[in-house]
């Protein structure tokens, strides 16, 4: 048997012309897959793990051939339509079988089929099996009626004699019949049998009445019509965990990261075809590709330069290498050039000035030193006090710089932390972190269509009008190139504070630079397309009880280079879970609610694919999306990190309690508790933003984190993942189990496992934290003005949070009442109770949506795309978690009256949401 399994889709991309020339499903790859026979044999063997239900109206049964559109191939291998019904040779045999069937006893019902008669609830119950030991028979009475001749004889005397003889014969026949016939003799045994049969008939009639009255037949009909069968919940969980195959995920990462595929390119389109093919082969009910037309930029050949110029400014005395050493090889094609997505085109020159991490505070410190930065080129490093690279560039723009260079310093992610790639996990000297510099905390999605989907003919903003783009050119740089720039700053400006010093070797002294610094040229000419096509791919399993309601799993597909860690650790897990859940459907299982798998495009530019989808389907998502689970850079270490909305904590913890980390021989929940882990809040930076902050869908972001890795560089490839970050793909397997169990619980538990009590308590804690922070900020700002009087008012907001907490506790008691009623009735749920349960679920999901500010012009002031009053990115800390972002922005700006108005508005929306939690 091979050491690893290949994915069950074909990975080799077509050329761009071939891909666009034909249907995605009609594309035939040029190579074969050697391990397909082994995979088929393995999957056939694995099907014995769960009982397979019999065939139903959807055609789900053993040996069936499923297609996403519901078509099922004929099972009779013949071209003669009449051969089954009109064959003369079979007629006698058919009649004989029917006669034998009429004489048969009624057999014991099949126990496997009996599970269909229950409303699908989370109990392993079965109806009693009745065996009939008698069959009804009527007395067999044979009566011969008198007969007459057809014509009278000519001789009347003879006729009379003959008639008399006939009469005597008839009379003898009647007498003989009367002697033979006798009424049954009534005795005690007959009375007992008759009473027993009447009692049995009454029981059957009563049982049927019970089925109709309780609504169980309705539940049966719904299950059969949607192809769903009931399985024991624990069996499903065990089967799911055992089905996760790290070898398949290893193969998936290898395939998806085998060539560069930034958004909108031929490599990107090839990965879209791969995912679409995989979803189809997984047997998902619906599979489709969805395209959008968005603003993207690409590096132009010979259009990027960083140079130090001579004193005249006419000649270059040094030119940066810019590009990394080629890592892909011939089979992968040319690796992605070094550039910034959504950067500004331009060719600027100015004195070089070093500004630490490029935060607003860093730029302000440079100004306070008396250094003139107007027209200069800023040199800043990644990470630090400002993690958003777009805000680093925007801060430089607002400070007066003409351009910005961002480099990777070894003190943050390089050799000073450990061995560098390819033998270690840290950034090597030529490694460059690409990335987008659009302002995703200001405008999310396509920057030319903020608030509406980017289809072909929709109106668009002008590129120079959108607030989502920076207005100065920028480029990323390796520390190998930055070393030369830092050396040339020595003696110019002022020596930097100790905390500003980086780890670039051979830089003996760190200086800020000033207007007399060496002049640097920053050239960034690029190709721009305002309607570049991108491709989302969707797959769906339709739920059997609430098909419109969905649990959504999303992962982006595009990458700045090869993207083994970011994003294809998440892609591999989504591929594997689609296969496992598709296989469960093929076995006869179907969830109560729909499960959707989403492969997003152009996430790396500005979360474009997911945002455009949300904007296109906004009303439906607010009504029907119960939860969104995000997968992105999900395996870069061994410590589980989770951020999300409080209702999802319960499902997360349930899953963590079942999954064991073999490296520590204990559960993930135990490891979480040991280090004091908490469910963090959501900031920005990945595809959950549009779902949580615009659609109001409770969202969860999961990842195993570790030390820094060569992020967004060409060193983030399969070899690094396979040999350094996750050998054996152990943490891929663990996270796939966690995510799969969460999806199973959210999609198939009768009562949606939302922790509303936790939401109430979290709101109370966050309001308290907001008040402490805001009053401290108010005190700082007013101290400069000589005013120490506090004007911020939080009493109404604290009261609203307390109201939510009380309502949530009262509301959550109904689940215990439901449990009591179902258990008391032996595991059966009445139609009325089922209706109440569905309404209860809908109210829990609606609470998050009620926290959206949907009035005209509502949302975060000046950033009205973001509607959630609790979650959302702050204006100047996009990646970080921030609760009540609108209030924080207004406090940060010193707008006290506006802050109080929005505090009151937030309190009113929280009380409105609390009113939903009433039975």
Automatic annotation (TrEMBL):
<feature type="transmembrane region" description="Helical">
    <location>
        <begin position="188"/>
        <end position="212"/>
    </location>
</feature>
<dbReference type="InterPro" id="IPR036757">
    <property type="entry name" value="TFR-like_dimer_dom_sf"/>
</dbReference>
<dbReference type="Pfam" id="PF02225">
    <property type="entry name" value="PA"/>
</dbReference>
<dbReference type="Pfam" id="PF04253">
    <property type="entry name" value="TFR_dimer"/>
</dbReference>
<dbReference type="GO" id="GO:0004180">
    <property type="term" value="F:carboxypeptidase activity"/>
</dbReference>
<dbReference type="InterPro" id="IPR007365">
    <property type="entry name" value="TFR-like_dimer_dom"/>
</dbReference>
<feature type="domain" description="Transferrin receptor-like dimerisation">
    <location>
        <begin position="792"/>
        <end position="918"/>
    </location>
</feature>
<dbReference type="InterPro" id="IPR039373">
    <property type="entry name" value="Peptidase_M28B"/>
</dbReference>
<feature type="domain" description="PA">
    <location>
        <begin position="348"/>
        <end position="435"/>
    </location>
</feature>
<dbReference type="Pfam" id="PF04389">
    <property type="entry name" value="Peptidase_M28"/>
</dbReference>
<feature type="region of interest" description="Disordered">
    <location>
        <begin position="1"/>
        <end position="111"/>
    </location>
</feature>
<dbReference type="InterPro" id="IPR046450">
    <property type="entry name" value="PA_dom_sf"/>
</dbReference>
<feature type="compositionally biased region" description="Acidic residues">
    <location>
        <begin position="77"/>
        <end position="94"/>
    </location>
</feature>
<feature type="compositionally biased region" description="Gly residues">
    <location>
        <begin position="52"/>
        <end position="62"/>
    </location>
</feature>
<keyword id="KW-1133">Transmembrane helix</keyword>
<dbReference type="InterPro" id="IPR007484">
    <property type="entry name" value="Peptidase_M28"/>
</dbReference>
<comment type="similarity">
    <text>Belongs to the peptidase M28 family. M28B subfamily.</text>
</comment>
<protein>
    <submittedName>
        <fullName>Peptidase-like protein</fullName>
    </submittedName>
</protein>
<keyword id="KW-0812">Transmembrane</keyword>
<feature type="compositionally biased region" description="Basic and acidic residues">
    <location>
        <begin position="31"/>
        <end position="46"/>
    </location>
</feature>
<keyword id="KW-0472">Membrane</keyword>
<dbReference type="InterPro" id="IPR003137">
    <property type="entry name" value="PA_domain"/>
</dbReference>
<feature type="domain" description="Peptidase M28">
    <location>
        <begin position="536"/>
        <end position="722"/>
    </location>
</feature>
